[in-house]
Amino acid sequence: MSTVLSAPAPLRTDDVAARAYEPRSARLRAASPAEAAAELADISTSIRRDIITTIQSAGMGHVGGDLSVTDLMVTALWGTLRMRPAQADHPQRDRFVLSKGHCAAALYSTLASCGFFPRSRLSEFMAPLSPLNGHPARLKVPGVETNSGPLGHGFPVATGCALGAKLRGETWRTIVVLGDGEMQEGSNWEAAMTAAHYELANLTAVVDRNRLQQGARTEDTKSLEPLDAKWASFGWEVRVIDGHDHRAIKEAYAPSTTGRPVAVIANTTKGKGVSFMEDRVEWHHKVPTDEQVRLALEELNR
Amino acid sequence: MTSVAEQAPTFDCRADFADELALLARTDERIVAVCNDSVGSSNLVKFREEFPTRLINVGIAEQDLVGVSAGLSNAGFIPFASAAAPFLTGRALEQIKADIAYTHRHVVLCGQSPGMAYGELGPTHHSIEDLSWMRAIPGLDIIVPADPAQTRSAVRWAARSGRPTYIRVPRFKVPAVTPDDAPFEAGRAVRLREGSDVTLIAVGTMVSRALDAAHLLAQQDISARVLNMTFVEPLDVAAVIAAAQETRAVVTAEEGLLSGGLGAAVAKVVAENDPVPVRMLGVPSFAPTGSAAFLLEHFGLTADGVAGAAREALGRV
Ligand SMILES: Cc1ncc(C[n+]2csc(CCOP(=O)(O)OP(=O)(O)O)c2C)c(N)n1
Description:
The complex is a heterodimer. Chain A is α/β, with parallel strands linked by helices. Chain A contains 10 helices and 5 strands; from the N terminus they run H-H-H-E-H-H-E-H-E-H-H-E-H-E-H. A 5-stranded parallel beta sheet of chain A has the order 1-2-3-5-4, with helices on both faces. Chain A starts with 14 loop residues before the first helix and ends with a helix. In chain A, about 55% of the residues are buried. Chain B is an alpha/beta fold. Chain B has 2 domains: about 5-175, 3-Layer(aba) Sandwich (Rossmann fold), CATH 3.40.50.970; about 190-315, Rossmann fold, CATH 3.40.50. Chain B has helices at about 5, 15-25, 45-50, 60-75, 85-90, 95-100, 130-135, 150-160, 205-220, 235-245, 260-270, 290-300, 305-315; strands at about 10, 30-35, 55, 80-85, 110, 140-145, 165-170, 175, 190-195, 200, 225-230, 230-235, 250-255, 280-285. In chain B, the strands form 3 sheets. Chain B has a 7-stranded mixed beta sheet, sandwiched between helices. In chain B, strands 9-11-10-13-14 form a 5-stranded mixed beta sheet, with helices on both faces. Chain B has a two-stranded antiparallel sheet with strand order 1-8. The two termini of chain B are about 20 Å apart. Classes of the chains: A alpha/beta, B alpha/beta. Chains A and B meet through loops of A and helix 5 and helix 12 of B. Thiamine diphosphate sits at the interface of chains A and B. Chain B: GO terms for molecular function: magnesium ion binding. Chain B: Its cofactor is thiamine diphosphate. Chain B: Pfam families: Transket_pyr, Transketolase_C.
């Protein structure tokens, strides 16, 4: 009864998608936030569809947080950072770290859209021996800077990336996206102090403030407010935005003007874009039925 | 083959863990549950309904979880600190050492969904290192229940022991293997089957598979003794020495890392006493992605795998 499976092929650049990504992303990066917004919103919608079908095929996944973080991630990877899908380890690349690593489906869908690997491989999400683990693994997926999933790891690593750039006199920048529940981990506040102390103006930390965590609302579990004042008191420049407004997100991702690291508190909705999932804690980790997938895709196609 | 693992009904022991804890909490007001945004995954929703003030949720903060539990113990409570096993043991390792074990706090650390129960979520979420990590800390009892009855016994035992304790609460579904009259004592293995050629020593998920392996071996005229080594710490040293003296080989099986786990503990005792061949089954390195059932197969953590290791140790291949 032993199942003999050969490991799937490693993930390699999707040349066609990567070639399409480069000029389009360059244009979106150079465009004003207002000009880029509609196009970034379109990309986000297609990523949301991929998230739904990826989770459907895996039969597992953290769909609520994936849909919450999509606009923040798409604006980072398509509209702000200089990613190099054909040379994922290029030393001059900008760094993107997803600290809330349970939202791997959103990250994989976005990386595939950029051409880091073929979109068709998304169907292998969490399959036996798949490189597409339930949580991002650096050694398996091009474009993944560091392993994440245990909460409270990505931010210190991202701080090190930014500190490294500063020490080397390099110009590339780092964006790290955190869950709001994740902010309850002490390691994050240690990193927040380090980044402020070293004046890492090349670092942007984004909090996906959807106000829900695994079991309940953040404010009913262990309250975070006043979150903006906390970041400010740790020495950060704070920008509070609507985390589904691509224009606002792109503006908030603009480099620091104060010489301090920038914290973006992005007010979001868990499950965004699928009405029956929005702001509902049970969709933290739940798989839609086939009928729910149909309804979700219908909403996302509108 | 009469398969214990494949034909008998199987159980997710988190329900037994939570029921037993509530049962004890009804008569002992010192018992509190502490968790990390894991009320649902620790199966503590009902506990919270019954004892709203005695379920403390510190949020996603495992170091805080263990430190706060140490403080609650200081204040006269008996905290059951519950979180996913990889984060509870790994993240708070130093708190477990300094605040619980070295301080000798009666705190019960409850590692939920251990081993490769979170298979598809990948190695960051596998708890294969926990037995090695916890064994490295002096003065900590380590219990690996194999079924619902043992999970309940573990909770009862740990509530009364007065000792720092780690319980690995199974999520991977296991059949009932414990006889009704089986003892539950620190440092006492349960002999589930007599045998004279080889001794199979297993914990947790692997106990029913070791029993199945013994059936397979019997068909080849190999008589296998099966020990359920529920307490990895304190280990039943006498049972291991007896195995080495009375049978010709020892096989260990655990859903965990080979370095530093049950196998290492057993091998040390065998090597220091009457050496016989030892074969250790477990996980050699970071596992790939896949369901727990798939990964157990992948690493040969099956009845066939255990039987094969036994034949090899006996030179009967
Ligand atoms: C160290 C650690 N503890 C617990 C968990 C289990 N866990 C996974 S996701 C999650 C909730 C995360 O909430 P949040 O950061 O707000 O993410 P989002 O709501 O955006 O999905 C928890 C507790 C974990 N992955 N890591």
